[in-house]
């Protein structure tokens, strides 16, 4: 079979893939763009369904508005670790939209803009001096791999599988009154770093889940039963009566974002971009997808598609480079329960510190001086030092 010719082929039509198509077609409306996905849409994707407002703002930059319509905005974010707790009301936190809905809406917008979608499981992506071939079905000047954490395109780009990973399980259950209108994140204390969440969708159902960093508990690795057990332990009552519990890997971002030169680009999870503090990946997927699409369209337009990888890498590093270094540090610190609790207490004392935490966890924020000082002050406070070093035991209590 002769491979059909395209300007741009996008492998995967999740948020990163559709954003790539949208970015390319916004830059160059006549471009021939093919998206291939192994699934039919609408399809489920194991996720917390939390869509940060940053992702919605990125979509607006390519003229896509209203994908959140019909879903209630999240107005409250609660963080808890042990006895430390902060609850914060905000107008611009985001939405909780089932991925079956959100991703299908993005596919519709991308095809409305002119992209073609076919169902196909890509097995082999191979680049040569003149172009890139996807199996025997398509050939293009540039290929963008947006095929998630188990990306086959990543191998074609010459990159090893992504580094640190987390494993998380999610399900749906009836919304409890204390979860209404909000996103609750409760950090674990036994299998650090880990957390459980309850994200109210606003339609009577809440997305509940639990995730932890892989490789920390080699003696007792996370099984499905263990993930469910931890979820129930941290958020009692969240698993009974729930449904659709499924687990999936998250490829966590690291200090540096490696990306090769050339005609094969990677976006979203395929490029190893999930916030290592929060597990947020949709904003990164949309932001990198749009930039990959624009970079491809520009390079094709100037007749130099082999330069795409380099210009895309520079753009993403310009956008996210410092942020990734800061989240890398923050993620390592968040392996310590005392630091997590100190951060939450600092946020509870100053709403601006809470804003800084939200930007770091959901957008492209940094560890601001205010956040650093708040954290250090809390950790140095006599009450914190006391509770860390001289926790009362049954023997010393009341002595
Ligand atoms: C349990 C859990 C909870 C999470 N919660 C959140 C959250 O609340 N908020 C948030 O922002 N992020 C969350 N994330 C992360 C988020 O789900 C991902 O970062 C996001 O889906 C990345 O989008 P993507 O387009 O890169 O990849 P995906 O959404 O995985 O899309 C990849 C697409 O590629 C297709 N595909 C894969 N392989 C092939 C192939 N060989 N050929 C053709 N098509 C292929 C797939 O069918 C899929 O449609 C969570 C992740 C997990 C596992």
3D structure, described in words:
The chain has 399 residues and is α/β, with parallel strands linked by helices. It folds into three domains: 4-49 and 99-162 and 254-325, FAD/NAD(P)-binding domain (3-Layer(bba) Sandwich); 61-97 and 165-251, 2-Layer Sandwich (D-Amino Acid Oxidase, Chain A, domain 2), CATH 3.30.9; 337-389, no CATH class. It is built from eleven helices and 15 strands. It has helices spanning 15-27, 53-60, 99-112, 153-156, 224-234, 282-301, 308-333, 337-349, 351-362, 369-380, 382-389, and strands at 4-11, 33-37, 50-52, 73-81, 84-96, 116-119, 125-127, 132-134, 138-145, 165-174, 182-187, 194-200, 205-213, 243-251, 264-266. Strands 3-5-4-11-12-13-10-14 form an eight-stranded mixed beta sheet. Helix 2 (53-60) packs parallel to helix 6 (282-301). The longest helix is centred in the C-terminal third of the chain and has 26 residues, at 308-333. The N and C termini lie far apart (83 Å). Flavin-adenine dinucleotide binds at residues 11-17, 36-39, 45-50, 121-122, 146-148, 152, 168, 170, 209, 211, 248, 250, 268-270, 274, 279-282, 285.
Q: Any ligands, ions or cofactors bound here, and which?
A: flavin-adenine dinucleotide
CATH topology of the largest domain: FAD/NAD(P)-binding domain
> N-to-C SSE series?
EHEEHEEHEEEEHEEEEHEEHHHHHH
Strand order of the largest sheet: 3-5-4-11-12-13-10-14
Which of globular, elongated, flat, extended, rod-shaped describes the shape?
globular
Give the class-level CATH name of the largest domain. Alpha Beta
| Percentage of residues in strands | 25-35%
Number of separate domains: 3
């Amino acid at each position: 079979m002769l491979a059909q010719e395209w300007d741009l082929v996008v492998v995967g039509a999740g948020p990163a893939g559709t954003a790539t198509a949208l970015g390319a077609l916004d830059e160059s409306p006549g471009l021939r763009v093919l998206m291939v996905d192994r699934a039919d849409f609408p399809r489920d994707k194991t996720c917390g369904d939390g869509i940060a407002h940053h992702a919605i703002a990125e979509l607006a930059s390519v003229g896509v508005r209203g994908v959140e319509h019909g879903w209630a905005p999240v107005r409250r974010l609660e963080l808890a670790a042990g006895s430390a707790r902060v609850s914060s009301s905000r107008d611009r936190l985001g939405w909780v939209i089932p991925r079956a809905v959100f991703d299908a809406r993005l596919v519709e917008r991308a095809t409305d803009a002119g992209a073609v979608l076919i169902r196909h499981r890509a097995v082999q992506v191979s680049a040569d001096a003149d172009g890139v071939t996807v199996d025997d079905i398509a050939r293009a000047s540039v290929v963008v791999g947006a095929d998630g954490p188990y990306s086959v395109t990543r191998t074609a780009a010459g990159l090893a599988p992504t580094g640190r990973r987390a494993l998380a399980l999610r399900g749906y259950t009836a919304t409890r009154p204390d979860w209404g209108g909000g996103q609750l994140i409760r950090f674990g204390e036994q299998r650090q770093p880990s957390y459980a969440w309850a994200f109210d969708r606003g339609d009577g159902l809440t997305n509940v889940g639990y995730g932890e960093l892989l490789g920390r508990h080699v003696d007792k690795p996370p099984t499905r039963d263990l993930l469910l057990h931890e979820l129930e332990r941290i958020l009692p009552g969240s698993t009974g009566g729930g449904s659709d519990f499924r687990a999936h890997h998250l490829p966590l971002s690291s200090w540096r974002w490696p990306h090769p030169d050339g005609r094969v680009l990677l976006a979203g999870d395929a490029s190893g971009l999930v916030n290592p503090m929060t597990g947020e990946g949709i904003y990164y997927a949309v932001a990198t997808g749009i930039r990959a699409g624009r970079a491809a369209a520009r390079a094709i337009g100037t007749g130099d598609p082999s330069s795409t990888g380099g210009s895309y890498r520079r753009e993403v590093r310009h956008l996210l480079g410092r942020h990734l270094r800061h989240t890398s540090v923050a993620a390592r610190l968040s392996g310590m329960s005392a630091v997590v609790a100190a951060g939450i207490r600092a946020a509870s004392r100053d709403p601006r510190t809470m804003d800084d935490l939200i930007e770091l966890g959901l957008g492209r924020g940094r560890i601001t001086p205010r956040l650093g000082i708040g954290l250090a002050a809390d950790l140095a406070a006599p009450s914190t030092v006391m509770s860390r070093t001289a926790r009362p035991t049954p023997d010393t209590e009341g002595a």
